[in-house]
Design brief:
Blueprint (H helix, E strand, L loop, with lengths): L4 E10 L2 E11 L4 E5 L6 H8 L7 E6 L12 E4 L11 H9 L10 H7 L15 H13 L5 E5 L7 H16 L3 E5 L3 H4 L5 E6 L2 E7 L3
Parallel strand pairs: 3-7, 3-8, 5-6, 6-7
Antiparallel strand pairs: 1-2, 1-4, 8-9
């Protein structure tokens, strides 16, 4: 089985601060990897490098066999801790705008993406008036628009109530069943456990453990 992501001795330095230390890792297709670690362990930095938003200082990374993640960006969906939505627009207006950036690609409709995450496309309220859980779901709907093969999610369950979190889990489980590879960070290990194929723990920027969750 060919790896979706391959990291070899990857390090990221900010001056003298080492954010990631010689990480070697392979992510298999159709698997969910739950990335754990304390604040400052390097979780978000790792996601941003895989997404092509940061370059490693040392080492190599291949995503979908491409040397640079930026060359495979059309197949990657990245959801940061910040929603990356326009507060003054409704969810549907936001998604119509982002959908217009994917011309020539087969995308979900904004309505289908919003329904997939349990939001009403007809809701006219602006994103700025949404609860944090609703904003998280709208952000995920934005990421799902281009139907990516690799999902990178930074704290997707943040500030969600139990019902919203279960709905998010069901959606991610469906995405994985469709063959999507998922790498997500969370401080709520027990919440993500039902969909985890592997748990990956970082400590001080280095891989502390990689454990098969369904063994």
């Amino acid at each position: 089985m060919s790896a979706i992501v391959q990291l070899e001795s990857l390090s990221k330095l900010y001056g003298s601060f080492v954010a990631l230390r010689k990480i070697s890792l392979e992510l298999e297709p159709g698997r969910c990897y739950v990335l754990l670690g304390e604040n400052g362990a390097g979780k978000s930095t790792l996601l941003r490098i895989v997404a092509g938003l940061l370059r490693p200082t040392h080492g190599t990374i291949r995503v979908f066999s491409e040397l640079r993640p930026a060359d495979a960006r059309d197949r990657i969906g990245y959801m940061s801790h910040a929603p990356m939505l326009y507060d003054e627009l409704s969810a549907a207006e936001n998604l119509r705008y982002f959908a217009s950036l994917y011309r020539g690609r087969s995308c979900l409709t904004p309505e289908a993406a919003l329904r997939a995450v349990g939001l009403d496309p007809a809701l006219s309220r602006s994103i700025g008036q949404y609860s944090q859980g609703m904003r998280q779901r709208a952000s995920l709907a934005r990421v799902l628009l281009p139907q990516p093969d690799l999902l990178l999610l930074d704290e997707p369950f943040s500030n969600m109530d139990a019902a919203s979190a279960r709905q998010m889990l069901n959606l991610l489980e469906h995405q994985r069943a469709e063959g999507t590879t998922i790498l997500l960070t969370t401080h709520q290990r027990e919440l993500a456990q039902p969909i985890a194929d592997f748990t990956l723990t970082l400590q001080a920027g280095a891989v502390e453990s990689l454990v098969e969750a369904r063994a």
